What does this fold into?
Amino acid sequence: MKALDAECQKPVIELRGIKREYRMESKPAKDGTNAVVVRALRGVDFSAESGEFVSVMGPSGSGKSTLMNILGCLDKPSGGTYTLDGIETSTSDSDTFAYIRNRKIGFVFQSFNLLSRTTALENVELPLFYRRREKGNSTRQTSQARKDQVIAALREVGLADRMDHFPSQLSGGQQQRVAIARAMVNDPAFILADEPTGNLDTGMTLEIMGLFQELNNRGKTIIMVTHEPELAAYTRRVITLRDGELVSDKQITDRRNATADLARWKQEHALLSEERP
It folds into this structure.
C-alpha cells in the first residue's frame, strides 16, 4: 500500500537542471570562433503535482517562452531531464514526441488556432483523428464514440448548444472555450495555456479564468504562461523566471475567484450603462 501511495504522489511534471542554449552565428572572434551562445534557460528545477494550477511569469527575455516550448515538447533541452507523466522526454524520438503532444498535453493559445471552415464539434474532434493515425495505435473509435467524446468536452466548457457553429459565429470567449474543449478531449496529463486571454476583453477574460478555475477544481492540472499579475492571482501557485533562472516559487494563499469577480464586473458595467444618457 505504501508503494502504491508513493507511486500516486509522483509529479505529473518534473524538470531537473533544464538548460537550453542557442548558438548564434556572428563575426569571427580572435580565437577563430564565430558563434555566440545564448543561454535561455540555466538549470531550471520545477515540478507540478496532479491537480495544480500554476502560472509562469517573468519579464521579456526571462525564458518563459523557452520553458513553455520544452514543457509542451515543442523543443528539447540542451541539458537536464524532463519527465512528463512517467515518460522521460529529453531522449524521446519524434514518434514519442508526437504521441506525448497528442495524448499528454492539451494546448491553449492566445490566438485560439481554430480552423475557420469547420464547426466547433469538428475543431474539437481533430485530436481524436490524429490519435487514430498514431503509429502502432491498434484501437479504433467509431464515429459515434468520437462524437460522444467531443460533445462531452463541449458540454464541460458550456458550449453543447454551439457545436454546429463556425468560429466566425462565436464570440472570442466562446472560441477560446472551443479551444479549451479541444485541449481536454484526449484527457491529457495537463493543460498548457499560453497567454490564453491575451485577445479577450475584461468580461471574456474573467469568463475564461472562471472556467479554468472550475476545471482545476475538478482535478485538471493547468500550467499557464502569463505576464499579468492580475491573472496569476486566479491560480494556486506562481513561479517567476528571470534571466533563464527560476527565482521565485510561491503558493497563493488568498486566491481570487474569477466567477465572483465576473459577477461584480457585470453589475458595475450595468450600472455604468444606466448612468449614460
